[in-house]
Design a protein that fits this description.
Strand content of chain B: under 5%
Radius of gyration of chain A: 32 Å
Number of strands of chain B: 1
Helix content of chain A: over 70%
Radius of gyration of chain B: 19 Å
Shape of chain B: globular
Distance between the termini of chain A: 33 Å
Helix content of chain B: over 70%
Largest sheet of chain B: none
Structural class of chain B: mainly alpha
Oligomer: heterodimer
CATH class of the largest domain in chain B: Mainly Alpha
Number of domains of chain B: 2
Order of helices and strands of chain B: HHHHHEHHHHH
Order of helices and strands of chain A: HHHEHHH
Mean pLDDT of chain A: 85
Distance between the termini of chain B: 42 Å
CATH topology of the largest domain in chain B: Rna Polymerase Sigma Factor, Chain: A
Mean pLDDT of chain B: 85
Number of domains of chain A: 2
Strand content of chain A: under 5%
Number of helices of chain B: 10
Low-confidence stretches of chain B: none
Number of helices of chain A: 6
Number of strands of chain A: 1
Chain lengths: 153, 200
Protein backbone atom coordinates (compact mmCIF):
# COMPACT_ATOMS: atom_id res chain seq x y z
CA UNK A 1 0.00 0.00 0.00
CA UNK A 2 2.71 2.40 0.93
CA UNK A 3 6.27 2.42 -0.25
CA UNK A 4 8.52 5.18 1.00
CA UNK A 5 10.30 5.38 -2.37
CA UNK A 6 7.47 4.55 -4.69
CA UNK A 7 3.83 5.38 -5.04
CA UNK A 8 0.91 5.06 -2.70
CA UNK A 9 -2.53 3.67 -3.47
CA UNK A 10 -5.14 5.81 -5.20
CA UNK A 11 -7.18 6.27 -2.01
CA UNK A 12 -4.17 7.43 -0.02
CA UNK A 13 -3.11 9.72 -2.84
CA UNK A 14 -6.53 11.38 -2.87
CA UNK A 15 -6.41 11.60 0.92
CA UNK A 16 -3.07 13.41 0.80
CA UNK A 17 -4.19 15.74 -1.99
CA UNK A 18 -7.40 16.58 -0.12
CA UNK A 19 -5.43 17.29 3.02
CA UNK A 20 -3.09 19.65 1.27
CA UNK A 21 -5.75 21.28 -0.85
CA UNK A 22 -4.23 20.00 -4.08
CA UNK A 23 -7.24 18.10 -5.46
CA UNK A 24 -8.34 18.75 -9.02
CA UNK A 25 -12.11 19.47 -9.32
CA UNK A 26 -12.90 15.98 -10.71
CA UNK A 27 -10.75 14.38 -8.01
CA UNK A 28 -12.66 16.27 -5.34
CA UNK A 29 -15.89 14.61 -6.43
CA UNK A 30 -14.18 11.21 -6.51
CA UNK A 31 -12.74 11.75 -3.04
CA UNK A 32 -16.03 12.88 -1.49
CA UNK A 33 -17.71 9.77 -2.89
CA UNK A 34 -14.94 7.58 -1.53
CA UNK A 35 -15.10 9.23 1.86
CA UNK A 36 -18.82 8.58 2.20
CA UNK A 37 -18.53 4.96 0.97
CA UNK A 38 -15.38 3.90 2.80
CA UNK A 39 -15.53 4.01 6.64
CA UNK A 40 -11.86 3.00 6.92
CA UNK A 41 -10.77 5.95 4.81
CA UNK A 42 -13.08 8.25 6.77
CA UNK A 43 -11.46 7.07 10.03
CA UNK A 44 -8.05 7.79 8.60
CA UNK A 45 -9.17 11.21 7.44
CA UNK A 46 -10.34 12.04 10.97
CA UNK A 47 -7.13 10.72 12.52
CA UNK A 48 -4.92 12.76 10.20
CA UNK A 49 -7.18 15.80 10.66
CA UNK A 50 -6.35 15.78 14.36
CA UNK A 51 -2.66 15.73 13.51
CA UNK A 52 -3.10 18.63 11.13
CA UNK A 53 -4.88 20.66 13.80
CA UNK A 54 -1.73 20.33 15.89
CA UNK A 55 0.83 21.02 13.20
CA UNK A 56 -1.15 24.00 11.93
CA UNK A 57 -0.51 25.70 15.28
CA UNK A 58 3.23 25.11 15.17
CA UNK A 59 5.92 26.88 13.23
CA UNK A 60 9.71 26.89 13.13
CA UNK A 61 11.24 29.07 15.83
CA UNK A 62 12.57 32.37 14.51
CA UNK A 63 16.30 32.89 14.60
CA UNK A 64 17.57 35.98 16.48
CA UNK A 65 17.77 39.08 14.25
CA UNK A 66 21.46 39.63 15.03
CA UNK A 67 22.25 36.30 13.39
CA UNK A 68 21.14 37.61 9.99
CA UNK A 69 23.16 40.79 10.38
CA UNK A 70 26.42 38.87 10.61
CA UNK A 71 25.48 35.95 8.40
CA UNK A 72 27.28 36.90 5.19
CA UNK A 73 30.41 37.93 7.12
CA UNK A 74 30.44 34.51 8.77
CA UNK A 75 30.09 32.78 5.41
CA UNK A 76 32.89 34.87 3.92
CA UNK A 77 35.15 34.29 6.95
CA UNK A 78 34.61 30.56 6.62
CA UNK A 79 35.54 30.70 2.96
CA UNK A 80 38.68 32.73 3.73
CA UNK A 81 39.71 30.37 6.52
CA UNK A 82 39.17 27.38 4.21
CA UNK A 83 41.39 28.95 1.56
CA UNK A 84 43.99 29.82 4.19
CA UNK A 85 44.09 26.21 5.41
CA UNK A 86 44.56 24.92 1.86
CA UNK A 87 47.49 27.32 1.29
CA UNK A 88 49.05 26.48 4.66
CA UNK A 89 48.67 22.75 3.98
CA UNK A 90 50.20 22.93 0.50
CA UNK A 91 53.09 25.08 1.75
CA UNK A 92 53.70 22.82 4.74
CA UNK A 93 53.73 19.69 2.55
CA UNK A 94 56.19 21.20 0.04
CA UNK A 95 58.52 22.66 2.68
CA UNK A 96 58.24 19.55 4.87
CA UNK A 97 59.08 17.26 1.93
CA UNK A 98 62.04 19.40 0.97
CA UNK A 99 63.29 19.45 4.57
CA UNK A 100 62.79 15.71 4.98
CA UNK A 101 64.71 15.02 1.77
CA UNK A 102 67.69 17.10 2.97
CA UNK A 103 67.47 15.60 6.44
CA UNK A 104 67.69 12.08 5.01
CA UNK A 105 70.61 13.05 2.76
CA UNK A 106 72.50 14.59 5.71
CA UNK A 107 71.62 11.60 7.88
CA UNK A 108 73.01 9.10 5.39
CA UNK A 109 76.15 11.20 4.87
CA UNK A 110 76.87 11.45 8.62
CA UNK A 111 79.78 9.09 9.26
CA UNK A 112 79.57 9.44 13.05
CA UNK A 113 76.09 7.87 13.37
CA UNK A 114 75.85 4.08 13.63
CA UNK A 115 74.12 2.48 10.65
CA UNK A 116 71.28 0.97 12.72
CA UNK A 117 70.36 4.44 14.08
CA UNK A 118 70.28 5.86 10.54
CA UNK A 119 67.96 3.10 9.35
CA UNK A 120 65.77 3.40 12.47
CA UNK A 121 65.28 7.13 11.88
CA UNK A 122 64.54 6.38 8.25
CA UNK A 123 61.97 3.74 9.29
CA UNK A 124 60.23 6.29 11.54
CA UNK A 125 60.07 8.80 8.69
CA UNK A 126 58.79 6.28 6.15
CA UNK A 127 56.20 5.06 8.68
CA UNK A 128 54.94 8.61 9.24
CA UNK A 129 54.66 9.19 5.50
CA UNK A 130 52.74 5.91 5.09
CA UNK A 131 50.36 6.89 7.89
CA UNK A 132 49.75 10.25 6.25
CA UNK A 133 49.12 8.68 2.85
CA UNK A 134 46.79 6.11 4.41
CA UNK A 135 44.71 8.79 6.13
CA UNK A 136 44.53 10.88 2.94
CA UNK A 137 43.56 7.84 0.84
CA UNK A 138 40.82 6.96 3.31
CA UNK A 139 39.42 10.49 3.19
CA UNK A 140 39.45 10.50 -0.60
CA UNK A 141 37.77 7.07 -0.68
CA UNK A 142 35.03 8.27 1.69
CA UNK A 143 34.33 11.32 -0.46
CA UNK A 144 34.21 9.14 -3.61
CA UNK A 145 31.68 6.75 -2.06
CA UNK A 146 29.45 9.62 -0.92
CA UNK A 147 26.15 8.99 -2.76
CA UNK A 148 25.46 12.74 -3.06
CA UNK A 149 28.87 13.85 -4.35
CA UNK A 150 27.69 14.12 -7.95
CA UNK A 151 24.86 16.45 -7.09
CA UNK A 152 25.04 19.47 -9.32
CA UNK A 153 22.74 21.02 -11.82
CA UNK B 1 -7.28 35.18 -13.48
CA UNK B 2 -5.09 34.88 -16.58
CA UNK B 3 -3.95 38.45 -16.13
CA UNK B 4 -2.95 37.75 -12.53
CA UNK B 5 -1.04 34.67 -13.54
CA UNK B 6 0.77 36.52 -16.26
CA UNK B 7 1.68 39.22 -13.76
CA UNK B 8 3.04 36.61 -11.37
CA UNK B 9 4.98 34.96 -14.15
CA UNK B 10 6.41 38.31 -15.17
CA UNK B 11 7.54 38.98 -11.62
CA UNK B 12 9.08 35.53 -11.39
CA UNK B 13 10.93 35.99 -14.68
CA UNK B 14 12.23 39.38 -13.54
CA UNK B 15 13.47 37.80 -10.30
CA UNK B 16 15.10 35.00 -12.24
CA UNK B 17 16.82 37.45 -14.57
CA UNK B 18 18.15 39.48 -11.64
CA UNK B 19 19.37 36.28 -10.00
CA UNK B 20 21.12 35.20 -13.21
CA UNK B 21 23.00 38.51 -13.24
CA UNK B 22 24.12 37.98 -9.65
CA UNK B 23 25.25 34.43 -10.46
CA UNK B 24 27.25 35.64 -13.47
CA UNK B 25 28.90 38.37 -11.38
CA UNK B 26 29.71 35.83 -8.65
CA UNK B 27 31.23 33.53 -11.27
CA UNK B 28 33.40 36.41 -12.43
CA UNK B 29 34.78 36.64 -8.89
CA UNK B 30 32.48 39.31 -7.44
CA UNK B 31 32.09 38.24 -3.81
CA UNK B 32 29.61 41.05 -3.13
CA UNK B 33 27.26 39.60 -5.76
CA UNK B 34 27.43 36.25 -4.03
CA UNK B 35 26.78 38.11 -0.78
CA UNK B 36 23.53 39.37 -2.29
CA UNK B 37 22.52 35.81 -3.15
CA UNK B 38 23.32 34.84 0.44
CA UNK B 39 21.11 37.66 1.72
CA UNK B 40 18.25 36.52 -0.49
CA UNK B 41 18.39 32.85 0.50
CA UNK B 42 19.99 32.73 3.96
CA UNK B 43 16.71 32.52 5.86
CA UNK B 44 15.22 29.86 3.64
CA UNK B 45 18.43 27.87 3.78
CA UNK B 46 18.67 28.16 7.58
CA UNK B 47 15.07 27.09 8.17
CA UNK B 48 15.42 24.16 5.76
CA UNK B 49 18.46 23.00 7.74
CA UNK B 50 16.63 23.59 11.03
CA UNK B 51 13.81 21.36 9.88
CA UNK B 52 16.25 18.61 8.99
CA UNK B 53 18.63 18.67 11.96
CA UNK B 54 16.40 20.16 14.69
CA UNK B 55 19.09 22.27 16.32
CA UNK B 56 19.41 26.04 15.72
CA UNK B 57 23.20 26.03 16.24
CA UNK B 58 23.74 23.17 13.82
CA UNK B 59 21.29 24.68 11.33
CA UNK B 60 23.27 27.93 11.32
CA UNK B 61 26.53 26.04 10.93
CA UNK B 62 25.29 23.76 8.13
CA UNK B 63 23.51 26.49 6.20
CA UNK B 64 26.63 28.68 6.25
CA UNK B 65 28.75 25.73 5.14
CA UNK B 66 26.33 25.15 2.25
CA UNK B 67 26.92 28.72 1.05
CA UNK B 68 30.69 28.29 1.38
CA UNK B 69 30.57 25.15 -0.77
CA UNK B 70 28.27 26.85 -3.25
CA UNK B 71 30.73 29.75 -3.51
CA UNK B 72 33.62 27.35 -4.14
CA UNK B 73 31.59 25.49 -6.77
CA UNK B 74 30.07 28.59 -8.39
CA UNK B 75 31.85 27.82 -11.65
CA UNK B 76 29.49 24.87 -12.15
CA UNK B 77 26.38 27.02 -11.78
CA UNK B 78 24.16 27.50 -14.78
CA UNK B 79 23.00 31.14 -14.48
CA UNK B 80 19.86 30.38 -16.48
CA UNK B 81 18.55 27.98 -13.84
CA UNK B 82 17.26 28.90 -10.36
CA UNK B 83 19.93 29.15 -7.68
CA UNK B 84 18.03 27.78 -4.69
CA UNK B 85 17.37 24.17 -5.87
CA UNK B 86 21.10 23.81 -6.55
CA UNK B 87 21.98 25.29 -3.15
CA UNK B 88 19.38 23.06 -1.50
CA UNK B 89 21.04 19.93 -2.90
CA UNK B 90 24.33 20.99 -1.29
CA UNK B 91 22.58 21.75 1.99
CA UNK B 92 20.73 18.48 1.88
CA UNK B 93 23.91 16.49 1.38
CA UNK B 94 25.47 18.26 4.36
CA UNK B 95 22.46 17.61 6.58
CA UNK B 96 22.25 13.95 5.57
CA UNK B 97 25.95 13.45 6.30
CA UNK B 98 25.58 15.32 9.57
CA UNK B 99 22.74 13.17 10.85
CA UNK B 100 24.47 10.00 9.62
CA UNK B 101 27.54 10.75 11.68
CA UNK B 102 27.21 8.99 15.03
CA UNK B 103 28.86 11.60 17.19
CA UNK B 104 26.99 14.51 15.65
CA UNK B 105 23.73 12.58 15.96
CA UNK B 106 24.33 12.22 19.68
CA UNK B 107 25.19 15.90 19.92
CA UNK B 108 22.09 16.73 17.91
CA UNK B 109 19.88 14.80 20.30
CA UNK B 110 21.44 16.61 23.24
CA UNK B 111 21.03 20.01 21.67
CA UNK B 112 17.83 19.52 19.70
CA UNK B 113 14.58 20.82 21.06
CA UNK B 114 12.97 24.21 21.03
CA UNK B 115 13.01 24.48 17.24
CA UNK B 116 9.23 24.53 17.04
CA UNK B 117 6.98 27.09 18.71
CA UNK B 118 3.27 27.15 19.27
CA UNK B 119 1.70 30.17 17.57
CA UNK B 120 -0.95 30.52 20.29
CA UNK B 121 1.61 30.61 23.09
CA UNK B 122 1.51 34.33 23.83
CA UNK B 123 -2.28 34.57 23.77
CA UNK B 124 -2.68 31.52 25.98
CA UNK B 125 -0.12 32.63 28.56
CA UNK B 126 -2.20 35.67 29.50
CA UNK B 127 -5.15 33.75 30.89
CA UNK B 128 -4.17 30.18 31.40
CA UNK B 129 -0.72 29.03 32.57
CA UNK B 130 -1.96 25.43 32.68
CA UNK B 131 -2.79 25.59 29.00
CA UNK B 132 0.65 26.99 28.25
CA UNK B 133 2.24 24.05 30.08
CA UNK B 134 0.09 21.57 28.17
CA UNK B 135 0.89 23.26 24.86
CA UNK B 136 4.60 23.21 25.63
CA UNK B 137 4.43 19.54 26.54
CA UNK B 138 2.60 18.81 23.32
CA UNK B 139 5.12 20.80 21.32
CA UNK B 140 7.91 18.82 22.94
CA UNK B 141 6.22 15.53 22.05
CA UNK B 142 5.67 16.67 18.47
CA UNK B 143 9.31 17.81 18.12
CA UNK B 144 10.50 14.52 19.45
CA UNK B 145 8.17 12.54 17.15
CA UNK B 146 9.28 14.53 14.10
CA UNK B 147 12.90 14.06 15.16
CA UNK B 148 12.42 10.29 15.13
CA UNK B 149 11.10 10.20 11.57
CA UNK B 150 13.45 8.81 8.92
CA UNK B 151 15.22 11.81 7.44
CA UNK B 152 13.70 11.41 3.96
CA UNK B 153 10.18 11.53 5.47
CA UNK B 154 11.04 14.29 7.88
CA UNK B 155 12.45 16.44 5.10
CA UNK B 156 9.25 16.19 3.06
CA UNK B 157 7.07 16.75 6.12
CA UNK B 158 8.93 19.93 7.11
CA UNK B 159 8.91 21.29 3.56
CA UNK B 160 5.17 20.73 3.37
CA UNK B 161 4.02 21.71 6.85
CA UNK B 162 6.43 24.47 7.81
CA UNK B 163 7.57 25.86 4.46
CA UNK B 164 4.15 25.39 2.86
CA UNK B 165 5.49 24.14 -0.47
CA UNK B 166 3.30 22.40 -3.04
CA UNK B 167 3.98 18.76 -3.99
CA UNK B 168 5.37 19.87 -7.34
CA UNK B 169 7.78 22.31 -5.68
CA UNK B 170 8.99 19.68 -3.22
CA UNK B 171 9.46 17.16 -6.03
CA UNK B 172 11.53 19.69 -8.00
CA UNK B 173 13.60 20.59 -4.96
CA UNK B 174 14.36 16.98 -4.07
CA UNK B 175 14.53 15.81 -7.70
CA UNK B 176 12.09 12.94 -7.05
CA UNK B 177 8.69 12.07 -8.58
CA UNK B 178 5.58 13.60 -7.01
CA UNK B 179 4.42 10.09 -6.10
CA UNK B 180 7.49 9.74 -3.88
CA UNK B 181 6.74 13.05 -2.21
CA UNK B 182 3.18 11.97 -1.40
CA UNK B 183 4.34 8.54 -0.30
CA UNK B 184 6.92 9.96 2.12
CA UNK B 185 4.47 12.51 3.42
CA UNK B 186 1.83 9.87 3.93
CA UNK B 187 4.26 7.63 5.80
CA UNK B 188 5.42 10.57 7.97
CA UNK B 189 1.87 11.56 8.87
CA UNK B 190 0.94 7.99 9.70
CA UNK B 191 3.88 7.68 12.08
CA UNK B 192 3.18 11.02 13.73
CA UNK B 193 -0.53 10.27 14.12
CA UNK B 194 0.34 7.03 15.88
CA UNK B 195 2.90 8.74 18.12
CA UNK B 196 0.51 11.52 19.12
CA UNK B 197 -2.55 9.37 19.63
CA UNK B 198 -4.20 9.87 23.02
CA UNK B 199 -2.83 13.38 23.50
CA UNK B 200 -5.20 16.29 23.72
Amino acid sequence: MNDDRGRIGRNEELLMRAFDDELEPDERFEFERLLSDNPELRGEWERLSKLQEVTANMRLRNAPEEMWAGYWNSVYSRFERGMAWILVSIGAIVVGSWGAWHFVQDLMADADLPTFVKWSILAVLVGLVMLLVSVLRHRIFVSQSDPYKEIER
Amino acid sequence: MNGTRTELERERDAGQAAEAILVRRAQAGDAAAFGELVSIYMQRCYYAALGMVGSPQDAEDLSQEAFVRAFKARGRLDPERPFYPWLYQILRRLCYNFTRDTSSRRRKLERAGGWLVAEARVRASVDDPERVRATEEFRGRLESAIGELPLAQREVFVLKEFEGLKYREIAELLDVPMGTVMSRLYAARQRLAVRLEGLE
